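Page 42, continued from yesterday. The earlier attempt failed because a stray header line got pasted into the input along with the sequence. Redoing it now with the clean sequence only.
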Amino acid sequence: MSVYKHAKTPFYQYDFVVDGRRFLGSTKTGSKKEALGFEAKVREQAKKDLPSEKQTGNAPLTLDVAAGRDWSEVGQYHVCAADTWRALNRLIQFFGKDERLAEISDGDVSARVAWRRRQTRWAGWPTRTRNRWRRCRRRPSIVTPRRS
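This time it went through. Structure tokens are written below.
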């Protein structure tokens, strides 16, 4: 059986092979019925993705992988890298780390913008954080050394 409960976790795990490729992970549910449904969805999605993966040699791009790549190649070098890190985390928080980029629609983006606008900007933030944020926004992207 491809759905089982491991002794170290309260959640059911799935484990199956499709065309020689192994898929395993947590179903994040304690109900066997829900776990079997989750496993069936994952199995069906895996069967859909394997032909394109064989053609291109790449798995579908998820938001977590894309955000990690953006951070490592670009974001960590920004003047205010901490702001970039927070923005990427907000995207992952809203959409979920396993969301595929190809499945994000215009409606999803609009919902994310509305969600972000509902959040208060400075509620409960200390003054030094507000000032640091403003300082980062005024800096040029290329920092030149000061003359003595």
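Notes: The chain has two domains: 3-56, 63-138.
Reminder to self: strip header lines before submitting.
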